[in-house]
Every structure is written in structure tokens, then in C-alpha cells.
Design brief:
The chain is of the alpha/beta class. It contains eight helices and ten strands.
Length: 239
Amino acid sequence: MKECRELHIHISIDDVKGVFRALTKEKMNSIFDTRMLGFLKTMHEKYNAQFDLYCTYSIEGYLFTDISDRYQKEFINNSNWIRLGFHCYSEQEDRSSGLFIGDIDLFMGGLIRIAGQSKMPQYLRTHKFLGDVNYCKALTEKGVSFLLTADDNRNCYYHDGTITDILAKNGYWHDDKNDISFVKTAFRLEKVDDVYKEIMHYRKKEYPVVAIFTHECFMDSIDIRDKFETCCKLAMEDH
């Protein structure tokens, strides 16, 4: 069984695309001139927090590969705490497995040019938690160690109800046959009121990783930022 206790609290953001559109269109001096990355930098400086950003490849005529590479050096210099991962090709389209695997290659080609990043993050969440065995294997071949499952009771990826129940109980499941590991997402910030209480709940359940996320579209909200900072504070205490 693979070890998954490296990060007791894992923080990620889904549906990331606006920050890259802003960097490309507005030609900013720094990636941290964007509101979201500026906020994340503050959280990193205060709490040594690390973040995974799961990116949308295509939306309204925008493609991930359209992004300027002028910020590559800055992404490389901050790659110890900001990691970019593939979330989906399009948030409005559920792709077949064959297209999924091609989409990964498209994303990886852009990733190394834009951010100098040659591998996916260790943790990854796909849009709607979709992906058959072949797709999940393809992601692990690109550097993913743990696929994040849903924060509710739906069956994710190629799982059935039995596996979903194991994930709910233990927070973790390793597919020995295919050598793929899964970590259950604990909660999303926009759906909880008391972040501290929620984190303590999953710690009592002895989840090896308390995986927390939100979406880019909520990151300007004061309420979400306050909850986000609480997560960062607690994550710092774990190290």
C-alpha cells in the first residue's frame, strides 16, 4: 500500500482558468499581480502553505496552450508551493476515455512551456470525478500518486458502491490490481460553515489526508478567503 501521509491537509482549487486569461490578456508584471495568486502568495508567506491548482483546458474560445510563456521562470521559482494539474478539457463537456488521454497530452505540452512543470501534481481531482481505469492509469503515468474522490457519496472514476463505502470509512483506498491510489475529498469550502469543526471531524475519523477544495470563481469572496486561511493555519500546525 502506498503511503499517503505526506500532507495531513491538502488544499486545492478547481476550475482554474481566469487567472491565466488575465495574465495573457493584461500582460501583468508578475503572476502575483492577479488577485487569486496574490492571495495565495500571502497564505504561503504566512503559513508556508502549498496549493494545487486544477486547470480547465478550454472555455469560450480560450485554450490552455494560448497562455503566454513569459511567466515560466516565475512559476518555476515558486514550483515548491504552486503546482498545476489537469482538471478537464471543458467544464461543459464530458469526454470519452480516448479523448481524455489525448487531452492529458495536450495539457502536458502546455504545462512545460507555460510553467516549466514536466509532471502532474502528486494529488489530482478530475472534473465530476470522471475517468475509467485507462484514464486513471494515464494520469499516474504523468506523475499523479493519488486521485481525489468526491466529497459526497457518489461513485467516482470506475468505483462501485463497495469502494465508495471504503473511501467514506477510511478516507483512502488502493487498487492493488491496477496500482492506483485514491483519497476521499473531505469537503469543499463553499458548502461548510465551520471549517475548524469539519477538519476536526475528519481527523477523528483518522483520515490520512484531509483534502479540502474550492473553485476559482469563489476565491474573491471574503467568506471563502477566511475559511481558506483557517485551513492554511491548521495545515501549518501539522508540520
